[in-house]
Each structure stands twice: as C-alpha cells, then as structure tokens.
C-alpha cells in the first residue's frame, strides 16, 4: 500500500511544527544533545519509511510522538542505561538533609522515576498534552494513564518532601 501525498504532507508538517517538542522529548530520556538529535533523526526515518502503517492521518502527531518515545527507549536499552532499581537502592541514594537546589532535586527525582511514570509526566506536563493524547502516544487506556499520573505525582511528592502529602484545597 503506497502512502498518499496528503499523508506525507501531514507527517512533514507535523515534524516541522513540533521539532522543538520532539527534540525535548527525546532529550528528556537520554540527557545528551547528540543522542537526542540522533533519536529525532531515527524517528523521522522510521516515520517516513513506515507511513503506510498510519491508519488515521488525523492522529499523525500522537503516532509520531509514539515513535520518538519507543526510539528513545530502544536507544536506552541498547546503551544499557535502563536499570531496574529497587526501593532499597533508591533509599540509599536519598540524602538525609534537605537540598538547597529544588530544580535539581526535581530533575534527579524525575530521572529516578520508572519510565512508565516519567513518560506520562513528561508528555502531560512538559509537552502540555491532554491525557487522551498521552494515552494515544503510549498506546494505553485513558484510565491507565490517569492512574499512572496519580501514582507518579504521589512518588514525586513523597520524594520531594519527606513529609506526608497534604490534600490540596
């Protein structure tokens, strides 16, 4: 099945319109400029060579973001940078005193989140996507994404302050 010209144009426009966001998304996984650029280039190649798999042209953005997420995760797996860390190891790294660099704390805490939670946080809050879009990109059900988002925020709250989470009114 040959992709039609209109679908190719939609993909090209999507890549052009979202290039900064896509780069930022890849960078959020690999934390390295060159690797992030490689992932974006790889993702563009994958999208262009598999465009006939895009069933709904109107979903081109989430389809392309999904390619970027999976390409980033594949890259990390190949680099063996993905590590399963148990609670005890995480505890041993957490400092006993409060840090005076809250932004660095957030960055480190995000880095320590399991990928399924980090992806949801990055797509929802850093890329400002709707929950439905996040679900589409990660190929998950909306309720699963809502649950993961809630759990990720709980983990971040507990990790960021050593005090119990308070109800926001």
From TrEMBL:
Domain of life: Bacteria
Domain RNA polymerase sigma-70 region: 15-81
Ranges of residues in domain RNA polymerase sigma factor 70 region 4 type: 105-154
One Pfam short name: Sigma70_r2
Keyword Transcription: yes
Keyword set, alphabetical order: Sigma factor, Transcription, Transcription regulation
Family matches, as NCBIfam families: sigma70-ECF (TIGR02937)
Family annotation (PANTHER family): RNA POLYMERASE ECF-TYPE SIGMA FACTO (PTHR43133), RNA POLYMERASE SIGMA FACTOR SIGV (PTHR43133:SF60)
Family stated for the protein in its record: Belongs to the sigma-70 factor family. ECF subfamily.
Protein name per its UniProtKB record: RNA polymerase sigma factor
Native source species: Paenibacillus baimaensis
């Amino acid at each position: 099945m040959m992709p039609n010209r209109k679908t190719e144009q939609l993909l090209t426009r999507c890549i052009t319109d979202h290039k900064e966001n896509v780069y930022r998304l890849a960078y959020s996984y690999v934390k390295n400029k060159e690797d992030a650029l490689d992932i974006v280039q790889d993702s563009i190649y994958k999208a262009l060579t598999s465009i006939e798999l895009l069933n709904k042209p109107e979903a081109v953005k989430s389809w392309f973001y999904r390619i970027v997420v999976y390409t980033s995760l594949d890259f990390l797996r190949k680099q063996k940078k993905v590590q399963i860390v148990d609670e005890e190891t995480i505890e041993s790294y957490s400092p006993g005193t409060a840090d005076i660099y809250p932004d660095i704390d957030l960055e480190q805490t995000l880095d320590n989140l399991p990928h399924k939670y980090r992806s949801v946080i990055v797509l929802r809050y850093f890329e400002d996507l709707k929950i439905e879009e996040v679900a589409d990109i990660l190929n998950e059900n909306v309720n699963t994404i809502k649950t993961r988002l809630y759990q990720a925020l709980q983990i971040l709250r507990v990790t960021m302050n050593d005090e119990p989470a308070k109800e926001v009114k």
